[in-house]
């Protein structure tokens, strides 16, 4: 079957330059926001994804799939798998480059069902950068990073400044959060 990834990245890109202070291999990434549906521990029904930096500027994100995530009996819902991919790819871009990013485009190929009680391992990498555009891809495998391939995806993430979150989000929460990212020295 032909894949949709033939023209990826779709524009000329430069290789990513991970930030000198980016977390080193072996580092477990903190939740980027405690109320995030993807990674936050304050969200009762959240996915509670966990990400760790691996060698070669790769990030491994795990999603423990439970009955709460079913779309059909015993099988994970595709939308939630895409959500996990969104978080995994976004975390890879944001944390390795140390820039705030938002998803502009996300594409998922579902290759194999993901059963309840399995853990999806999403391995993500930055494929290139073109100005504010960061192209990231990843693949999700069942129960191990070399397990059965279940999903593949690609995302376009756009670098934004704090004004994006202030304009569109909850300014009070943003002000609290920006203190945590003050060392990123973007335009905070
Ligand atoms: C104080 C707070 C700090 C927080 C820091 C946290 C750091 C933690 C680090 C990391 C963890 C991250 C984990 C996140 C995981 C979850 C991520 C999500 O789910 S994000 C929510 C969903 N996404 C949105 O809500 C975006 C909605 N869209 C927008 O707001 C705008 O459309 C935006 C910002 C994406 C672009 O708008 P424009 O006005 O700024 O820029 P324009 O010119 O339109 O686009 C820029 C370039 O991108 C292309 N572009 C934009 N959208 C595109 C698309 N859909 N397809 C293809 N190209 C697109 C355009 O053609 C343009 O390209 P050309 O520069 O001209 O070459």
UniProtKB/TrEMBL annotation:
<keyword id="KW-0966">Cell projection</keyword>
<keyword id="KW-0378">Hydrolase</keyword>
<keyword id="KW-0963">Cytoplasm</keyword>
<keyword id="KW-0809">Transit peptide</keyword>
<keyword id="KW-0443">Lipid metabolism</keyword>
<feature type="region of interest" description="Disordered">
    <location>
        <begin position="1"/>
        <end position="28"/>
    </location>
</feature>
<dbReference type="InterPro" id="IPR006683">
    <property type="entry name" value="Thioestr_dom"/>
</dbReference>
<dbReference type="InterPro" id="IPR052365">
    <property type="entry name" value="THEM4/THEM5_acyl-CoA_thioest"/>
</dbReference>
<keyword id="KW-0053">Apoptosis</keyword>
<dbReference type="Pfam" id="PF03061">
    <property type="entry name" value="4HBT"/>
</dbReference>
<feature type="domain" description="Thioesterase">
    <location>
        <begin position="74"/>
        <end position="141"/>
    </location>
</feature>
<keyword id="KW-0276">Fatty acid metabolism</keyword>
<comment type="similarity">
    <text>Belongs to the THEM4/THEM5 thioesterase family.</text>
</comment>
<dbReference type="GO" id="GO:0016787">
    <property type="term" value="F:hydrolase activity"/>
</dbReference>
<dbReference type="GO" id="GO:0006631">
    <property type="term" value="P:fatty acid metabolic process"/>
</dbReference>
<keyword id="KW-1003">Cell membrane</keyword>
<dbReference type="InterPro" id="IPR029069">
    <property type="entry name" value="HotDog_dom_sf"/>
</dbReference>
<protein>
    <recommendedName>
        <fullName>Acyl-coenzyme A thioesterase THEM4</fullName>
        <ecNumber>3.1.2.2</ecNumber>
    </recommendedName>
</protein>
<dbReference type="GO" id="GO:0016020">
    <property type="term" value="C:membrane"/>
</dbReference>
<dbReference type="GO" id="GO:0005737">
    <property type="term" value="C:cytoplasm"/>
</dbReference>
<keyword id="KW-0472">Membrane</keyword>
